[in-house]
Amino acid sequence: MESWKFKLKSGQLRKLIVYSLFFGVIAIVINACQSASEIEMAKYISNGKDIYQSRCQNCHGQNGEGLGELAPPLTDTVFLEVNKQKLACYIKNGANEPMQINGKTYHEKMPSFKDLHDIDIAQVMVYITNSFGNKQGMYTYEQVANDLKNCK
Amino acid sequence: MKRFIIYSAVGCFLTFGAACTQEKKLPIYGDREAKISKDASGKETIDTIYKTIPDFKFLNQDSVEVTQNAFKDKVYVADFFFTSCSTICPIMHRNMKTIFDKFKDNKDVMFLSHTIDFKYDKPSVLKKYANKLGADVPQWQFLYGNKEEVYKLAEKDYLVAVQEDSAATDGYVHQGWLVLIDKHKRIRGAYDGTKTEEVEKLKKDMDVLLAEKD
Questions:
Q1: Mean pLDDT for each consecutive 10-residue tract of chain A (152 residues)?
Q2: Do the Cβ atoms of A59 and B86 come within 8 Å?
Q3: Is residue B30 part of a domain?
Q4: Torsions phi, psi of A15, nearest 5?
Q5: Cβ-contact B98, B199 below 8 angstroms
Q6: Is B186 part of a structural domain of the chain?
Q7: Minimal Cα–Cα distance from B207 to chain A, Å?
Q8: What is the ipTM of this complex?
């Protein structure tokens, strides 16, 4: 009697083990995927920060605060989101059009950075759009390459 | 012997104490020469003649002629820049603006930015720039002048290297010194305007200079 009871229990136990292994593996796989993309983004941000410091910080400031009316701040997250597909063009080719940022109009020429590759632009974009109070996630160099085809 | 030790210890304390209380003074830069003059009785006196910033006459952001008179009896910070410069100027003026903000209400302090872009930076351009920087006030003069005068003033008097260079990113190269001038037109310091810690030192040195009695 006792051994029969135990058999039933061990059958349940086996089921339990199999299920938990199954779901465990799935959870690990999902988790691994997530952290792979997180690692990729962290890589973008850290490289983007270097590029930002050497190429952008001069005018836009260490904290993206801008410089008077000479250089706009990078804290207007709505502007960045709405114009995201134009950002690569601004960086690569410079900008010379009025922009409404934080409710103010800026009309100062931004120099071009022709020597930056798609990946550099993507990295600096991810850094900017995830710093200074922005939190807009990943942007890949493929997207940048695509955006650059549509520059005016 | 014991007495000697006590005396020398007291002596040491006195010397150190005196050294500590002595007020800090900024060095005076530039070449200097000795001027020997004799008075009526034939007694010789020696005066040190320091290098000073010579007279100048330029147009400011309001197209008004400005001479050294505007800086008479003022401590001022001078630099050389140009408005279309995208390399070191923005950071220099970002830092200079923090000094300006600190000394905004101090009537003994002024700021002087000479443009080295004699082709493009006409007074109207300087006006716009000053305005956008948030510094279009009489306390901060943006001066425009011809190449020879400005470049000579930079290199010979403020000891800042400036140059027209078609190979450079924006057509000109220059050093980013913020030069501190005292009430007697003498150079008392030069600080790298692109480095925050140097700019902080400049602010402190300005306090020292302002406290200086003649």
A1: 58 87 87 83 96 94 94 96 96 94 92 95 97 96 96 86
A2: yes
A3: no
A4: -55, -45
A5: yes
A6: yes
A7: 26
A8: 0.73
